[in-house]
């Protein structure tokens, strides 16, 4: 299988070598911050200015007769500290001081650039952007649903303080409205119809579950090591979010379904925001590092599949992906080694040639099984000792045996990227295999 080396410029992840950020890249990320600011303004309007819809309710509904808890166990300002400020501090401390200390890979001599302070600042920028985006999206979605649905809270009757004279005049099986209430504080009454979904739950999971995803990628909890203490560390923020959500049921500010829906909403926006700036958590060979800096108005860089060999000093990536036909690749080198039976290195092909085959398979470079079989017996160079010289059946058998030996005795690896990375650390990037 063809393999090429793609070196990622660490300076391209943060500041340029001259300490300057390209203008288009700066504009690209300024837009992200502007979007977050706009989300904050929208939520302020939804919370302070927009009047929520008020659903009618039954005075005989026992689920609406809970006492009005004042003060709350976790007020909104404390919830913001727990779900916003605390994750931001943890991300900053880990990125600036701890990132790289939990690598499973040893130091090697094949390092071309170091993980500099500017790279750590770039990681911090992406970590904070994702956190702020998660919080902003959670608040706006939650505030919009609260005002649109207008579901009564479990303590709505205690807030309302119905007028006894109006209650007696109310017909049987007739739902009550705000007109029966004697509460003069308009804010308390409006807030009483904002039960669905729970804002504390959505914001706490948006920030703390985002932190769990961040730590899971940095600590490599999904690798093949299975170190339980890392998993416990990752679950601590999620447990804290669950405790914040549970306090809303204890205070009778939300129904259980409101809390469950808000929690799932927070998890969703946390995952979506994390994936805007970081690769999937299960890609443990990428070390939880943020995507390279994008530049607004330029084509997207081709995705790279492969293995990061070293954590603390290099981001050199080995990839098995073969580019599509006609695609230029100035940053990659293609090499393929074929070995004879006696261990001598065979010919090297600097770049594979492809014909018009339509959509290519990313791992093999073939558009169909027929193309693969055709190239197997016509395009692959067979060593001289195994050159077919007898009947077709014998030649076919010899060719299949040779291919099997190539796969088992030094062919392309089929293991997981992180397993391959461990085995490649102290070996040359390309060598002949016996």
UniProtKB/TrEMBL annotation:
Domain (Phosphatidic acid phosphatase type 2/haloperoxidase) ranges: 128-274
Domain of life of the organism encoding this protein: Eukaryota
Protein topology in the membrane: Multi-pass membrane protein
Region of interest (Disordered), ranges: 321-434
Comp. bias (Polar residues): 365-396
UniProt cross-references to InterPro entries, sorted A to Z: PAP-like, PAP2/HPO, PAP2/HPO_sf
GO terms (BP aspect): phospholipid dephosphorylation; phospholipid metabolic process
Protein family according to the UniProt entry: Belongs to the PA-phosphatase related phosphoesterase family.
Protein name: Phosphatidic acid phosphatase type 2/haloperoxidase domain-containing protein
